[in-house]
Amino acid sequence: MISILPLIVMIATIIFFNNVKNIILIALTFSIVLCAILFRKYLPNQIDVLNAGAIGSIGSSFVAASAVAFGMVLTNAPTFNIVKEFILHIPGPPLVSLAVATSILSGVMAASGSIGTVITQLAPTYLAMGIPAEIIHRIVVIGGGVITVVPQSGVVLTFNTISGLNFKHGFKEAFIVSNGGFLISLIITVIVAQLFYL
């Protein structure tokens, strides 16, 4: 029970103080401090653990930031308007074109880059079509994971670093689990949204 106490405290803090600005960061910090206190006898050298965590998070942050930056550069290219018009004219319901656009872009710029690009560049058009913002959000977030097992993906790089695998040895399984799972979820979400919300 003591092992899940920091998680319970973090979730409870977020729920009960959800109107506080940056509550997630505050709750996470509080949970980390609680872990340091509760587990001090199991982790005698906590500074090394904190240093390893900080170093590990920096690489992931830079990969995600570079994917988003690549997306911003791509959207400012003159040819992006051609891509945008092509996406908006994909046959079928608008949710299908939104799902396809996000999925294809996730293969180019990983999930974080595709989500940022679609939300900033395409979401206003879909909002103007009368699609609820929460539906756009769900389709984009799930669609961002459909082709996210690519070499430049922050998740893939982080997972491979932690597990000791390389892209060659971990690709097949990661592709089946991640991309397949997201694709099934995306199809179900588009169908349910189309039937019940539009």
Automatic annotation (TrEMBL):
Keywords of the record: Membrane, Transmembrane, Transmembrane helix
Record-annotated membrane-spanning stretches: 7-40, 52-74, 95-119, 139-162, 174-197
Highest taxon in the source lineage: Bacteria
Name of the protein in question: Citrate transporter
